[in-house]
Design brief:
By secondary structure, the chain is of the alpha+beta class. Helices cover 45% and strands 17% of the residues.
């Protein structure tokens, strides 16, 4: 989809602003602090449900106001689609697509794929492995609904296990209860790693194809080495690291590492 119109209300330093966006390349320029990046944040918020600069939605609300509203009109195959996102300072966010309230950000993520290049993105190459994992998880989730579903399921089970680890550390639960979640985590983890490996191969293939159009003498390669191969081995690993996990209150091994 291509965005054709965007309206910002009490978003960052914008009081009320509507911009019409034509087809083709759009260049945005202005003085420092005039709100250029804020406009890109608004488009990203409509596409992903959140900003690319901060995870604290309250920071997007203009000082002195209690909420922001962003509305975008997107065009695909000649048809318009309107996405509205409103966020209140109390932490309530509502998003509507063509006037219909959506219940999950997952319904929003894959509708308008965007690529953002900003100073913050330098952490992908300069930062630690966690930044690279987040980057590829985001890319793969946009192009594959199955990957997004598996990733969200894994994160949900991981949070449950971590909560139990803390309870076990405080003497409020037994290891047997953790074992139930270990089995679920191992099953989903092996599926996530398999999907991630397949997506990486597809990504590298596309990267190499593009590279040949710019500089044939330069070769680019990315290797992915998953730290588990099947659910049984991961289950055994979780058993061996359980005492350490209980002590730390978090799961120390898995595709999130």
């Amino acid at each position: 989809m291509a965005i054709s119109q965007i309206t910002l209300s009490s978003f960052r330093n914008h009081d009320q602003k509507t911009l019409e966006i034509n087809e083709g390349i759009t260049v945005i320029w202005g003085e420092n602090g005039s709100g250029k990046t804020s406009l890109l944040e608004a488009i990203h918020t409509l596409s992903y449900g959140k900003s690319f600069k901060t995870s604290r939605q309250k920071e997007l609300i203009k000082n002195g106001t209690v909420s922001y509203v962003v509305r975008g009109v997107f065009v695909k195959s000649g048809n318009n689609e309107t996405i509205d996102t409103e966020y209140w300072i109390k932490g309530i966010q509502k998003t509507k697509i063509n006037g219909k309230l959506i219940n999950n950000r997952k319904e929003q993520i894959r509708r308008n794929p965007v690529v953002i290049l900003s100073p913050e993105e330098q952490e992908i190459t300069k930062g630690g492995p966690a930044e690279r994992r987040r980057f590829f998880d985001r890319v793969f989730s946009v192009v594959s609904k199955d990957y997004l579903n598996t990733l969200q399921t894994y994160i949900k089970i991981l949070k449950q296990r971590n909560a139990l680890l803390i309870r076990a550390r405080d003497g409020k639960t037994q290891n047997g209860e953790i074992l139930i979640w270990d089995k679920q985590l191992a099953t989903v983890a092996s599926s996530l790693c398999a999907q991630r490996k397949a997506m990486f191969e597809e990504f590298v293939s596309a990267l190499n194809y593009l590279q040949t159009h710019y500089e044939e003498d330069v070769q680019i390669g990315i290797k992915y080495k998953p730290n588990l191969k099947d659910s049984d081995k991961y289950l055994d690993l979780l058993s061996k690291t359980r005492d350490a996990d209980v002590s730390l209150g978090r799961t120390t091994r898995g595709p999130h590492k």
